[in-house]
Amino acid sequence: MRHRKIVEEYYSDINNLADLLSKLVNSYRLLIGGVGELNGIALAHKKSVKDALERANDLGHVIDDIIDVLDKSKYIYLDYCKLRSQVIECKIQAQYIQTEIDEELKLDNNEKDHD
């Protein structure tokens, strides 16, 4: 079960990154909207608009980094899920077959008892 805990923590990390990505994307959208509004103000200095664009650009790089990490991480977790599904599928099939055999044996025993 130690391995399961590691995978659960890994999933939690991926989930946290996805949550962080969502929050950062919202912040990015707000920054870009703010830059647009600032740019529309006649009294705004050009340097202020450039600084605001630079902050949005920096946040965009952070978002890109998180997307890269998630892209690399998702394959490992997906492989784990596929493998787990295969194992469960094998176990379910084995149990189904065993139940079928047990029922056949019970039927055979019941028929012999009635003869």
Considering the chains and any ligands shown, give keywords for the structure.
mainly alpha, 115 residues, rod-shaped
Task: Provide structural commentary.
The protein is mainly α. It has one domain. The chain is built from 2 helices and no strands. It has helices at residues 2-40, 46-114. Helix 1 (2-40) packs antiparallel against helix 2. It is rod-shaped. The two termini are 51 Å apart. The model has no long low-confidence stretch (mean pLDDT 85).
List the helices and strands and how they pair.
Elements: H1 2-40, H2 46-114
Helix pairs in contact: 1-2
Q: Provide the β-strand percentage band.
A: under 5%
Mean pLDDT: 85
Instruction: Give helix and strand order, one letter per element, not per position.
Output: HH
DSSP strand count: 0
Structural class: mainly alpha
Shape: rod-shaped
Distance between the termini: 51 Å
Q: Profile the largest sheet.
A: none
Work out the count of structural domains.
1
Short characterization:
The protein is mostly helical and 115 residues long. It has 2 helices and no strands.
